[in-house]
Design a protein that fits this description.
Layout lengths: L1 H16 L30 H4 L44 H11 L3 E8 L5 E7 L5 H15 L11 E7 L7 H15 L3 H9 E6 L4 H6 L20 H13 L3 E7 L5 E2 L3 E4 L5 H21 L11 H4 L6 E2 L5 H6 L4 E7 L5 H6 L2 H28 L1 H17 L27 E5 L4 H13 L5 E3 L3 E3 L2 E3 L4 E4 L5 H8 L20 H4 L3 E5 L8 E3 L8 E2 L7 E3 L4 H12 L4 E3 L5 E3 L4 H11 L2 E4 L5 E3 L3 E5 L2 H9 L3 E4 L2 H5 L9 E4 L10 H11 L3 E5 H10 L6 E4 L5 E8 L11 E5 L2 E4 L6 E15 L10 H4 L3 E7 L5 E5 L13 H11 L2
Parallel strand pairs: 3-4, 3-5, 5-9, 7-8, 17-21, 23-24, 23-25, 25-26, 26-33
Antiparallel strand pairs: 1-2, 2-4, 6-9, 10-14, 10-15, 11-14, 11-16, 12-13, 18-20, 18-21, 19-20, 19-22, 27-30, 28-29, 28-31, 31-32, 32-33
Helix pairs in contact: 1-4, 5-13, 9-13, 18-19
Length: 827
């Protein structure tokens, strides 16, 4: 039988290898923490997480052509009685490896691979359930997967339908892992005919816990303080990079992301706005159908607490649970061809409830939640098995449209029940994007590497070429938008939209743009022929160079984070550098060898320096910051000491500090007398950089710069147009910035310099309207000072940011602006 099936598979693969032509009432789910103004309140400190770090080992991800099962003897972890899941009667992290090891010994249907490590070094498990395959059969299945990605048909009866179940991405939303374990054990050990047939026709992939550090600690965020379900197009966290690799590698037809907690249970599809780069017709026809079946399955459990599941598409107002941003697992996976869902299980067991409810009640709730998870997974497996041919054709068609460069389809009202004009979002795909080194070679290389990492196809021109009447040099990068994952390419590179008038609220950010915020020069070509001699890129070409003649001092402009890395690297070696008035850093000619070394390491380019400049030493920064700001500052090479109001009140040594950064968790008026005196003494000699409401309040309370902060609408967010000044921070900055809960400054005192203003049209892409009383809108912000600098009466050099230049480690092209502020203020 196996030999016969293999012969059929081989024959099919040979053919493929050849070229081929509402009615429920919405419950308004609570917005989760960390999305907006509240990020100003709590400072991120060096904490106990770091002491818990385990030794990270190398990944043992199998070659994608290796057969199944792929048995891995997983390393085990010591019992941890402090694991927060234990109290809920759920599986602690240390129990997972022994259970998976035992199942692998018991069953030939289960494979476990370690696909990465968490921030603290805990293994990330990809568990695959499928009928055994030889290496040859696996190679054929991989060929089928690649053929589907090319938009060409495969024999649906032979292609194993891939399904991905992602669990526990928020560490204190535990039960996805436990529901998945139930299904894993059933699929691995059940002898019923339906299960065996399912696994002959499918591969079911489980990311067992996406956030093991958060699971153990009982925190939503990972050990670095990041919400992993906001990081997918940025991929700044190791856990996100592992998930991104899994979705690209498996190319699921359908996926679930198991979360909690929304009363009754929430099952996507989402409300509008729906991402404008989707082929939404290919999503919604299956998305709604399986959502309705999951609803019935949850109801059939008989739990009164889950009797009325909510489907946002059907039940919620516009924007309440939108599918706009590609930062979430489900919305990101759609760009890789998945019909995807966020599932929110019903019974809250985290945060205050975890600490106050009796253990018996917590465990009762967790059991209900685990039942719901299990029901949604089993329903989805059945749906894919029943509709596998249609789902394969559906995914193939998405990729075919991209490769052919076809326009998006118009979706008529009533396409599925409830679809109307409010659901209709679309874009016009350009013919190509061209990425050059015109502004910043490191930024161009970083952007190219990011695109390639996300499975976007990029080519590097071998010779000069002309496009749209413009001549481009050899080495330019071209993103041909006739490619299967053109939606993912476009959602990262396009400007986006101002959707302020299209939704009264939005669940999270509404604007982002790698093209506008990552610092590279990217040009759009809307149409015309695309002819050039190029080769596919697997990694961007090296960009570092020392262009100055031997014997000349070397200059490095701070236009990119890599430039900052290079400067801080040189400073850490004790080299004597100079800083000029325009922010340029000068390296003496005698240190040319060191400059060459960092040029190669960071991809930066040194030119010939002009005379002049003041001595520059390494800066130590005391930082009251959110987690994202802390990571950016440290990734930039700064020596950072984390502080807060409580840390200063307990006594803090300012003697080695050069600059203070205030973004979160520091209130001047709450300092005790000793702490205030020590800080005031520092302010007579040290620099100050602030961000957001907490920073502005600190500036006012400490009586530094005369500048009145004005708060925009608290939920306003997105990419903004800015006009740069010529001061130490605004010069050479990008013409765009990012805001969340924006501010601007009025009543500026003598000597206060406007480094950056909001443009006359403020929002380039995002969501920003006025409050109900008419205040805080874009019109009020237009032309106002967004970033200012000056020297306080006590001598402190101060920079105030009303923008968000380090938000979630995303706007890479803005980090140099922060570094210039720190170097100037601490100079």
């Amino acid at each position: 039988m196996r030999r016969t099936l293999l012969a059929v598979l081989l024959a099919a693969a040979a053919v493929i290898a050849a070229p081929a032509p509402g009615t429920a009432q919405p419950s308004s789910p609570d917005r989760e923490p960390g999305n907006g103004p509240e990020r100003n309140e709590v400072a991120t400190l060096d904490n106990a997480f770091q002491a818990q770090s385990v030794l990270a080992q190398g990944e043992n991800q199998a070659d994608r052509h290796q057969g199944y099962p792929r048995r891995t003897t997983l390393r085990t972890y010591p019992e941890n009685t402090a694991d927060k899941s234990i109290k809920l009667g759920l599986a602690p992290y240390h129990s997972l490896a022994p259970k998976l090891n035992a199942l692998q010994q018991k069953s030939n249907r289960i494979s476990v691979e370690v696909v990465g490590q968490s921030g603290l070094g805990r293994d990330l498990y990809l568990v695959t359930l499928t009928a055994p395959e030889s290496a040859t059969e696996t190679r054929i299945q991989e060929r089928f997967r690649a053929t589907v990605e090319e938009g060409r048909n495969v024999p649906a009866g032979l292609y194993k339908a891939p399904i991905w179940i992602n669990n526990n991405i928020h560490g204190d939303e535990w039960e996805g892992t436990d529901g998945a374990l139930r299904v894993i054990e059933h699929l691995a050990t059940s002898n019923d005919a339906d299960t065996k047939k399912l696994l002959q026709r499918s591969r079911v992939y489980f990311n067992l816990t996406a956030n093991p550090d958060g699971r153990v600690a009982g925190t939503r965020a990972n050990s670095a303080g990041f919400d992993l379900n906001r990081d997918f197009v940025t991929s700044s966290q190791p856990e996100n990079r592992a998930m991104q690799d899994v979705v690209e590698r498996t190319q699921p037809l359908m996926m679930l992301d198991e979360h909690g907690y929304v009363a009754n249970t929430l099952i996507e599809p989402t409300t509008p706005p729906h991402g404008q780069n989707y082929d939404f017709d290919l999503y919604i026809k299956h998305g709604l159908a399986n959502g309705l079946l999951m609803e019935k399955a949850v109801q059939a459990l008989g739990h009164p607490e889950a009797a009325k599941p909510e489907i946002p598409f059907r039940d919620y107002p516009v924007g309440e649970w939108d599918g706009w941003a590609p930062i979430y697992t489900a919305q990101y996976a759609m760009y890789h061809g998945a019909v995807s869902y966020t599932i929110e299980i019903p019974m809250r067991v985290n945060r205050g409830d975890y600490d106050t409810l009796p253990v018996t009640e917590l465990q009762r709730r967790s059991k209900i939640n685990t039942d719901v998870v299990e029901a949604t997974i089993k329903t989805t497996l059945d749906y894919v098995d029943d509709n596998r041919r249609s789902l394969i054709e559906n995914q193939t068609e998405m990729f075919r449209r991209g490769a052919a460069g076809e326009k998006q389809r118009y979706i008529p009202d009533g396409f599925v029940p409830g679809f109307g004009p409010e659901d209709r979002f679309s874009t016009e795909f350009p013919r190509a994007y061209v990425i050059t080194n015109d502004r910043s070679a490191p930024a161009a290389a970083r952007l190219v590497d990011q695109l390639v990492r996300h499975d976007v196809r990029v080519e590097r021109a071998e010779r000069p070429f002309t496009l749209g009447g413009k001549r481009y040099p050899a080495g330019s990068y071209v993103v041909d938008m006739h490619q299967p994952k053109r939606g993912l390419a476009n959602v990262m590179l396009e400007q986006g939209s101002d959707i302020s008038d299209k939704a009264p609220v939005m669940y999270d950010i509404s604007g982002w743009s790698h093209r506008l915020l990552w610092g590279a020069s990217v040009e759009i070509h809307r149409g015309g022929q695309l002819r050039f001699d190029g080769k596919p890129v697997t990694a961007a070409a090296p960009t570092g160079a020392v262009d100055a003649a031997p014997g000349a001092d070397l200059a490095l402009g701070l236009t990119d984070q890599k430039d900052v890395n290079a400067v801080n690297d040189l400073l850490s070696r004790g080299l004597e550098l100079r800083r000029q008035d325009d922010g340029t850093i000068v390296v003496p000619a005698r240190e040319r060898a060191a400059a060459k070394e960092v040029a190669d390491r960071y991809g930066v380019r040194f030119t010939t320096a002009k005379a002049g400049g003041e001595a520059l030493q390494r800066k130590v920064v005391a930082a009251a910051v959110s987690a994202d700001e802390l990571q950016v500052l440290r990734e930039s090479g700064f020596d950072v000491r984390t502080i807060s109001t409580a840390v200063l009140n307990a006594g803090f040594d300012w003697s080695r500090i050069d600059a203070l950064y205030v973004g979160a968790g520091l209130n001047y008026t709450q300092l005790n007398a000793a702490a205030k005196t020590a800080l005031d003494e520092f302010l007579k000699r040290g620099g100050v950089v602030t961000r957001g409401a907490t920073g502005s309040r600190f500036n006012t309370d400490a009586k530094l710069l005369q500048a009145t902060p004005v708060a925009g609408w608290e939920d306003a967010n997105g990419v903004v147009n800015v006009v740069n000044g010529t001061g130490p921070v605004g010069a050479n900055a990008l013409p765009h910035s990012f805001v969340y809960s924006p501010q601007w400054f009025t009543n500026l005192g003598t000597g206060v310099t406007v480094e950056q203003r909001y443009g006359s049209t403020v929002i380039a892409a995002g969501h920003w309207h006025a409050r109900d009383n008419g205040t805080g809108g874009q019109d009020a912000a237009a032309g106002q000072a967004a970033v200012v600098s000056g020297i306080a009466a006590n001598g402190a050099k101060v920079v105030l940011f009303g923008t968000e230049p380090m938000f979630r480690n995303h706007p890479k092209g803005l980090y140099a602006q922060v570094a210039r502020a720190l170097f100037w203020s601490a100079g």
